[in-house]
Each structure stands twice: as C-alpha cells, then as structure tokens.
Amino acid sequence: MKLDFATLPKATLARFAKLGLQRPFDLVLHLPLRYEDETHLFTIADAPLGSPVLVEGEVVHAEVTFRPRRQLVARIEDGSGELFVRLINFYPNQQQQLALGRRVRLLGEIRRGYFGDEMVHPKVRNVGDNSALAESLTPVYSTVSGLNQPALRKLIGQALQQCDLSDTLPAPLLRDLALMPFGAAVQLLHHPTPDIAQQQLSERIHPAWLRLKFDELLAQQLSMRLAYRRRREQTAPVLRVAGEMAGRLTDSLPFGLTGAQQRVLAEIRHDMASPHPMQRLLQGDVGAGKTIVAALAALDAIEAGYQAALMAPTEILAEQHYKKLSTWLAPLGIEVAWLAGSLRPKAKLAAIAQVESGAARLAVGTHALFQESVAFAQLGLAIVDEQHRFGVHQRLALRGKGGSPHQLMMSATPIPRTLAMSFYADLDVSVIDELPPGRSPIKTRLVSEARRDEMVEFVRKVASEGHQAYWVCPLIEESETLQLQTAIDTHAALSEALPEFQVGLVHGRLKPAEKAEIMAAFSRNDLQVLVATTVIEVGVDVANASLMVIEHAERMGLAQLHQLRGRVGRGALESSCVLLYNGPLGEDAKQRLKVIYESTDGFVIAREDLRIRGPGEFLGSRQSGVPMLRFADLERDTALLEQAREVAVQLLEHSPHVAEAHMARWLAGREELLKA
Ligand code: ADP
Ligand code: MG
C-alpha cells in the first residue's frame, strides 16, 4: 500500500505535525527510542526477574477481584511453571484476551508478588495460527496520543519500503570513512536483528547510528558553508580608509589597545575593506574591551562616508553605550543619534530624521533602531552588542536595513569550539583573548544564606573604603511580582542596616528613564549600594564597584552568574563576588556553583555550561534559528563533526551535485530555518 500524506486523515496529519513528520522520508528518520525483544521465548521457570521477557502459556484461571481494588487477575501456565498477570485498568477486550483456556504471549517484567511471580500490565497477545516469533527487535517510537505504536510502526514500515533509501554519498567515500550504507543503516535501526548488542543501539554507538549522525552533521556543515558562500556573493560597501578618525580617538584614550584588541580590529578592518558583507562575531569575555573596538570600527565606516549603528539589548546598556560613544566621538565633531522605545514621540521623530538625513553618522539604541519607520541614509556597518540576547528575527530585521551592511556581532558568551564549528560555522569569529592590563582577579566566595548578616557587614566595609557594591536579588521565575517584592524588601532591609550609605533599587518594572537615572546615580557614586533584579546583567560598566553579592545563586544559570560577576573587577580594584546559596542543593546546582567558584575563564565556564545543559538549552533553539541536531551529540561526536566538516569542504569543491542531493534528503522542508 502506498503511503501518501495527501490521502492521510487530517487527524493523523495533525499528530504527525506534532512529531515533526511532514513527508514520508521524515518517517524513515523517525528512529526508535528503544526496542522490545520478542524474538526469544523464555519458559516461565527460566525467565529472569526484573527485565523484559517474552513468555507464552495457557490461561488456567481468570477473575475480576475487588480487593484491594478492582483488577483483573489471571494465572498462566506453560508446563515449566506458573505466573500471575494483573491488570489494574482493563478493557473488555483484554478480559477476552485473558479468558480461561486461551493461549497468550506476554511481554513484560516478572516480579515477586504476594501470590507468587507476576507481571503487572504486560503486553498481551493471543497466539493463534501464527506462532512465529519476531525476527527482529520490535521498535518503540516516540509518539503522541491518538497514534499508537502498531499504527506508527506500520506507517514507518511503508515509508521504509517506498522511500528512496539509496545512498547520497559515493561508495569510495563511504569506504574511506568506514561508514555503512544509508539504506542498511536505517533498516537496521528500525528493525535490528537480535544478535546486535542492544547496548550499542541504546548508546548510539553502533555503526548504523554513526552513519546517521554523520549524515546529519554533514548536512548541517553543507548548509552552513553554503550560507557563508551566499553571503560572499552579495555586495557591500567597501569601507577602506586611512583610519584617521580612529587614530584620533585612540590618541585621546587614557589607555592603549591590548594586543588582542589590535588584532581583532585588524580582522574587522580587513573584512570591511572587502566588497562583501562582513558577518563577524566578536567574542570577548566580560570586561575584555569590546566597546572601544566597536567604536573604532564605526569610525572607519563613518570616515568612508557611511553611517554606523549600534544596537544593544536593553535600554540601560544602550544608553550607557550612547553616553560613552558620544563622549568619545564629540571631539571628532560626529553627531550621534539616540533611539529607544521610551523616547517621547517628538524626540523619536527628531532622531529618526537625523538618521534619515544622514546628519547623524552614528545611531545608538535598542531594537527600536531597526523598526520599520527608521530608514538609514547610508548604513555601512551594523553592530549588535550581546548578540546572543537577540532573537533571530531582530537580527534579520537589521540585515534588511539599507542593502547589505557589514555586520559586527559582539558577545561575551563564548561559544565552545564544537558549537562554533557547527551552529556558528557561517560566521567569522574574532576573539579578544586577553583582558586589559592591571585588572586584579575577582575573588569568588560561596556563602550560605545563614551568614547573610556577615555579608551585610562586608558591604559596609567596602562602602566605607569608598567603593561600591551590587546586591542582586534572586530570579523568581514563577512570579515577577514576588521577585519585585523580594527586591523591595531587600532594599528596605539594606537601607536600614546601612544608614550611613545611600542604597538604590533598580528593577524591571521601572520606566527606562527611571532606570537610567538610577544607573547614572550609581555611576556618579551618589549611590554606594545598588539592589537590583537581574536587569544589570549585561554590560553595565562602573569601575568603582568592587563587590557583587548574588542571592540564591543556586537558581541561576552559569552564563548568567558569569555575566553578573563580570560587573565587578572592571578596574584595578581588588574585587569580590559573593554567591549566597540556600541548601539543600540539587546535583546541577552543585555542579554549577563548583564551576563558577573554580573558574573565571569564560570559555571554561561555557564549555561546562554546554556539558551540563546540552546544546539545545545552551543555544535556545528558537533563538538560534538553526535546526537542532537530533541524532548527533556535539560533546560525544566531535570526531564525526570534524570528519563531516572536511567532507563538506571536499564535496562543495569537487562534487556539488552530491552535496545538493545530500542536503535535499536531510533538509527538505527546513530551508526557511537555514536562511537565518
Ligand atoms: P566588554 O568587552 O565587556 O563590553 P567594555 O568594552 O565595557 O567591556 O570594557 C570594560 C572596561 O575596560 C571599560 O571601562 C573600558 O573603557 C576599559 N578598557 C577597554 N580596553 C582597555 C584597554 N586596552 N586598557 C584599559 N582599559 C580598557
Ligand atoms: Mg560590553
């Protein structure tokens, strides 16, 4: 029977959609979660306890009892021994299956019960004329309600028969890579013969699994490379300049650029001088000094006669950038526009006009910068700070402005190597791997909540020495109101405990202008202590702040803790970060706190974060806009990833039609995602 999605009932299609099945081939790739072994029959006497077994016998007794509750109890004999079967919820047809005298085959675990050995809720099948055992393991698939295993198995069986399972890769290549043929691999995974070690299947290390993982990784590598190539085919303004403006800014700075800053700036300049849009990710740990690099790149664009734009994820951060860049650029006579959602309509219109006329050479703001009503006169460079905080759509909107400007994305969340090789393979990456000199390392302390009072004294000490402290209130995911209340309470308590100092409060419910005012007061040291919800997480830069107290640190993710801690230690001051925790700690929380305590290296932390959370969580699938890997595991399959990467290069170079066929098989229906 031919499987045709067009003729399937609507309800089935809806269930398929939930499972991500859109075409027959998706069924081929819907691989079993596990298997049941119905290839071997045990005698009741020999069947081991506690693992699934198949036994067969005759029903010699069956009754519905009501004590201790309504249940169907049957007794089965096979000549070697007897076994009880108990069904606590049952249907009339099951009662018939287990009627006196019937021969049944039972799949389940045998346990010692009150009456004797028993199976509770086994899979029951009557043995009729056809008593042949299964020849392969029975696959169990992930499914949704309304689509049972037998139905799904049948549909997948049909798909396996009718889909083209021929290989997309040439035989010599498979031989070189020691990979098994695709068709054989999927057939095996759906219907493995009993001689195959189940462990190799469940751990996904069987050659059949390796083949599927390789194919998946290869498809991903190919699509990323093609995206990269497509970009290389677009044209962008050539921003090749003498760097005179940038030179004037660096001359005016109280510090010199670090070697790493100079190197990444050279990489950016090289890209911007080419006629193709740059798409470069600038990575640098918190405090590495990305802002000045961005400013210097923007000056090159401006010197070349174009505009630059800098977008930040929050108003606090955007405003801070605006102030800093205005200070830096004003002496050069460059007009900077400020655009944020909170601007009054009149001010907003004025800013938009500044950008449209080209009077403003640099525009700084939140995503308001890239709303439809804003049209740049000649946008040459778009910079996105903390890019991982933006969704893919916002990044796309930005790309749509004014042809194809060069793009610089900045992030303090380092991408572990395997992720960089896979999900970010279409970007060029520059890394600032050196902090500016004279920073003293941050001391991290793990302190139990019971010692909170001591920490208040610590804050007092820091403030008495003329420095400042952040006190971060816990994230309460279930309730924003509760989170706010905690912050208000903490603020009141700290104000009372530290009457000789000014304690400020900043939280997400404040208006942007109010937030900005409080941040400004903290910058001026009018406030010595700042109680905050996690709004201060990104990019805030107050060099005199030397203490960060984080409450309920056990609730926060590693990246967040690292970012928060990065708010201190920005100058030469000896700085501390206190992680207050409430026990008892869960296993993950324990691991996270250990990592953050032992390391201040963003890369180490990101790698551990990836290990603890896995890539889906790490990237946030919606956010990344790239299809997640279903089969391959970036931690465990690094070797396959390396291979796939090499093969992708070879194929695109020498056998583009093979590359195309491979992508058609693996990525059909997902093109939209890939364009991101
Ligand atoms: P991030 O990379 O986290 O965005 P910033 O750009 O905010 O870091 O820089 C952190 C601080 O370091 C700022 O106060 C900045 O002026 C300062 N800074 C940047 N580069 C240097 C340098 N080469 N030497 C000394 N200080 C620097
Ligand atoms: Mg920054």
TrEMBL record:
UniProt keyword annotations, A-Z: ATP-binding, DNA damage, DNA recombination, DNA repair, DNA-binding, Helicase, Hydrolase, Isomerase, Nucleotide-binding
UniProt domain Helicase C-terminal: residue ranges: 454-616
GO BP annotations listed: DNA recombination; DNA repair
EC number: 5.6.2.4
Isomerase in keyword set: yes
Domain of life: Bacteria
InterPro entries: ATP-dep_DNA_helicase_RecG, DEAD/DEAH_box_helicase_dom, Helicase_ATP-bd, Helicase_C-like, NA-bd_OB-fold, P-loop_NTPase, RecG/Mfd, RecG_dom3_C
Residue ranges occupied by any Helicase ATP-binding domain in the UniProt entry: 271-432
CDD domains in the cross-refs: DEXHc_RecG (cd17992), RecG_wedge_OBF (cd04488)
Record's catalysed reaction(s): Couples ATP hydrolysis with the unwinding of duplex DNA by translocating in the 3'-5' direction; ATP + H2O = ADP + phosphate + H(+)
PANTHER family reported in the protein's UniProt record: ATP-DEPENDENT DNA HELICASE HOMOLOG RECG, CHLOROPLASTIC
Protein family: Belongs to the helicase family. RecG subfamily.
Role this protein plays: Plays a critical role in recombination and DNA repair. Helps process Holliday junction intermediates to mature products by catalyzing branch migration. Has replication fork regression activity, unwinds stalled or blocked replication forks to make a HJ that can be resolved. Has a DNA unwinding activity characteristic of a DNA helicase with 3'-5' polarity.
Listed name of the protein: ATP-dependent DNA helicase RecG
Lineage: Bacteria, Pseudomonadati, Pseudomonadota, Betaproteobacteria, Neisseriales
